Amino acid sequence: MADPLKLYRFLLKFYPARFREEYGTPLEQQFRDEYGDAAGGLGRFAFWARTLRDLAISIPLELLRELRQDLSYSIRIYSRRPLVTILAVTALALAIGATTGVFSVVNALLLRSLPFRAPERMLQLRNAFVVSGSAEFHAWRSRSAYLEDAAVYDQAEMNLSGASLATRVKVTETSYNFFSMVGSQPEIGRSFAQGEDVAGKNGVAVIGYGLWQQFFGGDPRVLGSTIHLNGTPLTVVGIARPGLDYPAKTAMWTPTVFDHQRLPKNGAIFWETVGHLKPGITLAQGESMFEAEAEQRLPGSMQQEGVNRPRLVPLREQLAGPVRRASLVLLGAVAFVLLIACANVANLLLSRVTERRKELVLRTALGASRARLVQQLITESVLLTCLSAAAGMLVANWAARLATVAQPAQLTVQNYTILDWHVLGFALGLAALTGFMFGVLPASLIGRLQPTEELVRGQPGNSRSRARSLRSVLVVVQVSLTLVLLGGSIVMGRSFLRMLGTDLGYRTDHVVTMSVSLAGTRHGTAGLRREYYREAIERLRKVPGVVAAGAINSLPLATAAFSADHFRLDSGRVVEPSTVMVATPGYFQAIGTSILFGRDFTSADRTAPEPVAIVNEEFARLSGEDQALVGKRVKAAWSESKPVIIVGIARSVHYNGPEHGVFPQLFLAAEQRSPSFMTFAARVRGRTEAYLPICRDAIQSVDRQVPVFNAKTLDDRLAETLARPRFYTTAVLFFGALGLLLAVIGVYGVASYSIIQRTHELGVRIAIGASAQRMRWMLLRQSLLPVAIGMAAGVAGAFGLGQFLQHLMDAAQGVDGLTSAIAAVVLAAIATVAVWSATQRILRLDPMQVLRAE
Amino acid sequence: MSRKDELTAQDLLPLPAAMFHMLLLLSEGERHGYALKREMAKRSGGRLNPGPGVLYGSINKMLEHGLIEESDERPVSHLDDERRRYYRITPFGRRVAKAEAVRMRELVEMAEANLGLPEPA
Asked: Which terminus has fewer CB within 10 Å in chain B: N or C?
């Protein structure tokens, strides 16, 4: 008999605590009776089957019922103190949301699987040795001791023209084996055939799924048809799988990487090599073999430092790039904030438990077991966490979207989203963990409830001085961390404001910009290109509302790479490497850069007897001639080209945005040399965005076959440039604000807790003549002591933070005395207000009532 | 604590069969849980034979709704088992049971009118 009952008792543990306590004995009794009635092996078997069925039905029912009761009780408890509830939910929602948001980025970049064959073995071979052509490359890869397979590619933007429309697409020129290497065969049609990457056979292309849908309307008849890339005819042989846009959002692949002349391009060619490590070879082994090979083929290359050194990089690391470190740092920081938030809300709820002591003691005295009360408290905390997690998902979604703008991922498959099982699981785990943390902490206090003693004395026991000092330590830690965060926020905020206030040397308001590329079009010669640009600018100027228009081959905030050269003056002096750009008349006026000395370009420059140029102030300063440079000649130091005469000096500009400085520039006249790529700029009156389609159409009307792309306002380009610093500033400001909120909750919690604990003492003091105001001052002093200690520690920490911030944002500076002072004053003021409002209840304290309660 | 002040008899209808049976049994006199179960099984010809979990779940619910209450009176000591709890019907429970019976009667009358039930034997 003992054993079956033991088993049944064990099964009864699955009932909720209250039901078990209430009916455990009659249930056992009935079990015993019925077990006795069931005779024989078969009877016992049937009895067990009935019993288990009964348990399976009734346990979930009772659990649900009790959950419903606990929940409605929890809602009543929370709605009694709405301020505390809102504070707790807000703090947790922000912390859970921010953590989940940052995690969604880390998940997308580092955890989500890549749509490639054996992605964990895929590598990028940085600065790999150059091979001369297809035959040499394929011979090399098939002989490789450490690579199973490899492909080489080069990327460029090109004009795609079909029957009627023209558009700008990202094209990857590859070796024929690219698709088999990444392990993604085309959805329709075929990939490149062996030997198709040699001149004469390479007139084929595979188009991306997205491009096929958008540009060709998803029509399968595009297979076998001819398209033109930069004017070169190619036959479409395949359509890639949906989601494949590697590398870097490619929309079209051609096997022309070894045939440089096949597709006319602007700018330099950078070959990239990707490969699969052979199975069984570790990354370290692969690295040493790669380095040995690099040293053998390019002697001295391994002695190079920085970006030029050959390196073997796992593809995932390559794709995550610079975002990786910042995201991990942010994740670490935000997880820390979350922990503090949890501890803090626990602290807050702990003081609530103390306030509810009487209720809990009474319930214990009436027979509620510890398990029952723990269950109630855990339900309360889980409810709070679920609410917070739900609100936190909104914050997370917002953070993920912000991150997408600030630091977009390289591939579509890496987009940051919270609608991902990893992310949702992470958020759920966080919610469960946090709920458990402050369910268990307050619950552990219940173990010390001594109902009889407390009911008799009406006074809590004396086991909590340790808890009180623990709270003070928590406040010290929290205040110091908050000060560090606040210091950081102020530094970041000030740097960012300074950035926004930087005089760029040009005006980004009321300017529309858009680009064209004439490579491979019918505007093949310098003369035809000049005519095209002249006509386009003319049409732009005729648009009503356009006040100035011009073009340049490298627009500020738009181009990352420039050509640069040394220039020699007549005097023999050589000016440092200066960027060389080509601009049309009207360009400086359009972007609002003033010509300080001399003159702007004019259409008459075309027939000028010698080439003319404009330099910027920085160039003039470095030349040592300043304004006297106007009228003098300079010559590219290492080139045979003719000297150019300087006709004007323009203001120096922050070319790459406010984060970056100015550098020497020399502008050549587009009237005299016409590059194949130009970006137009038009200054307009009125709402700038409205001019984008109008101006694009005006340029498009010059030649329908030349796509006009990247139509954006200059303000938008500036906003894109600032997106990353803005994101980090927002993140750190957010952590600072969150830290401040948590600090307020912490300080308030400790102050109100200590008042409740000392109600009796305070009542006695007031009864024997101390004024309530004096009591408040005393409590203020005592509560602010840990705040002061925390601030001292925080100032030290804040100074150390400077370097960390410089990692995140170039323009950020270290934390100075003023910043620390501002942070400390803000924190102290808010802490004082929190304590002062917590001590308000002393004013309502009626000493007679307190004493009578004895 | 109970919700009987907020609830009317109509709010609880229709009653689950087991609950109705238990109320009817308790209207005859006080009983403990196991006795309720045995009697219920007997009268329903074994069709209503709840296990202990379901039985005490129903008892719990009836207590909460104020349909029954625990009784302090005990039977003579040689018949009593200290561990057993006895229950009795409350006036509210009686009203609810009556309302349920009326509801069932109306249902039966409707069935008679529509289906033409045979006379009881």
From this structure: C
